[in-house]
């Protein structure tokens, strides 16, 4: 079996990009096909195209739109690594950055003017994301030159504007109805904020974890010691937010968990320090859908993040992450609110992926061996 695909970097993630019709030709459920393509279950993903980490085991599936108000529809898939499973419950902001670029490169959207506007719809969340890609003189630049924190090499600039993002998953910006809640886990009561915008996110105070705001570089070591407790918090938040009925049913990808703390007075370059978890481990940068939730949380009185940023924020929010400072922005367009962030994207390879014809049997045999 041969499947056409494109390997792309979006923001600080890498993903395999497929056109829906190419996957449909395989005649196999995507819950079976994608893990086999990526080489799961296997922490190395040695017999597939996965990268063995949460930021490199992603797929973006593009669809031709069914309405004239959208240029491209896409579905995001977080492919399991140590399990042959696919999480369809959320979108990926970094992965979203490849959609507009792909559409221009493949001729789905024709460049118009110095900046081309591509209206995309994420089908996981029914979220409209307006993408802006520079196209000087009506074409992509021959050599991409935009830089961003967390990526050593340049790509094409992509602005992502999430249109009215509040409550797209749960129906409300504050799914529990309050700006802060208390969750008991690991013998401690934790003050948290649960916010749904871009993606559902539960926020934990850094000081309650014993993290020193003046030593952000030391956070990861301490956080890794608390991963089990943080996972308990995250799973309880999934229930409180109405995402699942029991903690055992909580998906790996949502809700996301963010640890937030105040910057030091000696560091005026950011509004808050943030460390986010991705698939149970510290994220090397920041989940962009999570950054949208953080942006609205900072502007919502009573949340743990608003207690840090206060009421003095302008149209931008600067978040320190392990990869550097990431800046989000908010923009009013009539009655529409765009909350966004600027990313870069680049095509790495265009290829044909080969896999055995009897994919279903191969996955079943792999799963049987993993449970022995």
- Rg on CA atoms, Å: 20 Å
Order of helices and strands: EEHHEEEHEEEEEEHHEEEHHEEEH
- Beta-strand portion reads 25-35%
Unreliable parts = none
Structural account:
It contains eight helices and 17 strands. The chain has helices at 20-24, 30-38, 93-105, 219-225, 227-240, 288-298, 306-309, 359-370, and strands at residues 2-10, 13-19, 58-63, 72-79, 86-87, 115-122, 127-134, 156-163, 181-185, 188-197, 199-205, 256-261, 272-278, 281-282, 316-321, 324-333, 336-354. An eight-stranded mixed β-barrel has the order 1-2-3-4-6-7-8-17. Helix 2 (30-38) packs across helix 8. It comes from Arthrobacter sp. K5. Belongs to the PrpF family. Pfam families: PrpF (PF04303). This is PrpF domain-containing protein.
Question: What order do the helices and strands come in, and which of them pair?
Answer:
Elements: E1 2-10, E2 13-19, H1 20-24, H2 30-38, E3 58-63, E4 72-79, E5 86-87, H3 93-105, E6 115-122, E7 127-134, E8 156-163, E9 181-185, E10 188-197, E11 199-205, H4 219-225, H5 227-240, E12 256-261, E13 272-278, E14 281-282, H6 288-298, H7 306-309, E15 316-321, E16 324-333, E17 336-354, H8 359-370
Parallel strand pairs: 2-3, 4-6, 11-12, 13-15
Antiparallel strand pairs: 1-2, 1-17, 3-4, 4-5, 6-7, 7-8, 8-17, 9-10, 10-11, 12-13, 13-14, 15-16, 16-17
Keywords:
372 residues, alpha+beta, 8-stranded mixed barrel, 8 helices, 20% helix, globular, PrpF-like, isomerase activity
């Amino acid at each position: 079996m041969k499947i056409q695909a494109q390997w792309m970097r979006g923001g600080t993630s890498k993903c395999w990009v497929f056109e829906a019709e190419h996957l449909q030709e395989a005649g196999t459920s995507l819950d079976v096909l994608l893990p086999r393509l990526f080489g799961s279950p296997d922490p190395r993903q040695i017999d597939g195209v996965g990268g063995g980490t949460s930021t490199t085991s992603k797929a973006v599936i593009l669809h031709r739109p069914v309405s004239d108000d959208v240029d491209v529809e896409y579905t995001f898939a977080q492919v399991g690594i140590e399990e042959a499973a696919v999480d369809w419950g959320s979108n990926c902001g970094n992965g979203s950055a490849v959609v507009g670029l792909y559409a221009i490169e493949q001729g789905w959207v024709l460049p118009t003017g110095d900046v081309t506007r591509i209206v995309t719809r994420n089908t996981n969340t029914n979220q409209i994301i307006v993408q802006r890609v520079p196209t000087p003189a009506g074409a992509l630049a021959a050599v991409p030159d935009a830089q961003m924190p967390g990526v050593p090499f340049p790509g094409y600039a992509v602005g992502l504007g999430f249109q009215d993002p509040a409550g797209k998953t749960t129906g409300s910006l504050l799914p529990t109805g309050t700006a802060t809640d208390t969750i008991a886990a690991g013998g401690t009561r934790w003050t948290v904020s649960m916010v749904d915008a871009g993606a559902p996110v539960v926020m934990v105070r850094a000081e309650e974890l014993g993290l020193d705001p003046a030593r952000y570089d030391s956070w990861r070591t301490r956080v890794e010691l608390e991963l089990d407790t943080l996972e308990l918090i995250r799973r309880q938040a999934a229930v409180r937010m109405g995402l699942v009925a029991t903690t055992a049913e909580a998906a790996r990808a949502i809700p996301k968990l963010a640890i937030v703390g105040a910057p030091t007075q000696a560091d005026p370059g950011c509004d808050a320090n943030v460390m986010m978890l991705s698939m149970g481990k510290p994220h090397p940068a920041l989940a962009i859908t999570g950054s949208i939730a953080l942006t609205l949380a900072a502007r919502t009185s009573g949340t743990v993040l608003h207690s840090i940023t206060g009421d003095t924020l302008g149209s931008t929010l600067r978040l320190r992450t392990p990869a550097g400072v990431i800046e989000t922005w908010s923009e009013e367009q009539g009655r529409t609110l765009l909350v966004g962030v600027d990313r870069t994207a680049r095509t790495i390879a265009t290829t044909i992926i080969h896999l055995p014809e009897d994919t279903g049997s191969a996955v079943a045999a792999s799963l049987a061996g993993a449970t022995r």
